[in-house]
Amino acid sequence: MTKKMLTAVFLLISLWVYPQTGFTCSFEESPLLAPLLNNFDENDLTADDNRPYVFQLHYWQLVRDDGTSDNLLTEQDFLESLAFVNKVYNQFNIFFKWDGLTNVPNTIFYDIEDRDELLTAGFYAYVHQNGFYVPGQLNIYTHNAGGGSSGQSTNDFMPINLNWQLIRHGAIIHEIGHNYGLAHTFGPLWDQDNPFPHNCEHQTRNPGDLGFNANTHGDKLVETYATPYSIDYDDVVLDGDCNYIGSAVDCTGELYINPEFKNFMSYTRSDCYREFKSVQIAKMRFTIREVFLNGLESLRDTIHRKELYEPYQGAYTEYAGQPNGDPPLFQPGFEYYFFECECPEQQPCNVPSAYDDTNFTYTNNALLHILPDEIDYSAITHPNHTAMAIKHPHEAFWPQPRRCFDNWLSPPIIGGTITKFNDGIYNANVTITQKDSLQMNDVNLINDLDPGLYNIKKSKVDGSVEETNLLKENE
Ligand SMILES: [Zn+2]
Fold this sequence. Notes:
By secondary structure, the chain is an alpha+beta fold. The chain contains ten helices and 15 strands.
């Protein structure tokens, strides 16, 4: 993949307005991961095959001991967050599958208003020891303290914590960026040699220049420009569209050029979290490939991709035409097509065919088409006689639809009644005979009846009743 193809700009259309006071984050690079991350070579991006990576994501909401919260968010809110995250990261072939939302009841942690205090009070140890995390997945915790932080974990516990107002804000994109190996554009916050508030990355991008340090300072990436610590830095000015129009200088007195105030990994104005540079995308994918997945890469990739084709809640009906109060629902944020499909007679798919089994036929006729910004989540379901496809440029997703659901089963008959109209016309002079399952399923049921006028009711296991009227003539 070329650098150019990786470049992506994402304009935030946030339904959520976070106070302009600004977002901060307690990210510190893991000393254990640093040596691995330093193997990333900005000038050699050829190793990336651009395969899709799919992660499961679990949300955890901090509430009081009794389950209450002044800011209780609903599953719908968190599904919106997931859709928001996917719309950004799917551009880089990184995907997230809903794993669930669980409340974490703890009044002591709930009441803490300072993020650093929350962490020093042992919040992560608490959730880790009490089963409020899922191993090997991304775990995102919401709380009442300000801002957020991300643990760059070396074990299977990959935690992110975030103020509850930030789940649909660029801040969540920022924290996931940390999780996948990205530093702040302005560098680490606590670098002993280059102290807070900026670690003095010089603005020059030319390796031949005296004073060039872009590959060792700031985020150590040359493609991202030297950037002051935050928009509060002296002489930083942004216009209404987040363009930098200030006159700030770096620590050598040189004017900053193109500082990254639209970058997800900066501290910028709330509406300006908008983009990653191509090198940042490449570094996140490097981190996933070389640090998180390593030898298990292909295995996990395949397993997790299947997950996107599993409903996050609900169930398929057992029989065709059966009313379903709990239909299978799929997560929002993707474009889905449900194409008409048919399974071979010898291999019916009364339950959806397996992800890897594409031994069915399908047409281009979509019985249901869902857009990524669909807000009626109950509409994102899997109709009978269709297979689902996720519209995404990568060949792993498109155009091959998966999981043909082609259910023609009728519910079994569990009994019924035969009503004979004794006068041969419909009136009240009737004889009613109860029949059990064996009798109602007897193939000779009709043959064995005497001539006459009948009403036959077949009761089915799902509660439905099939009713037929019959006039049996003399033979
Ligand atoms: Zn950060």
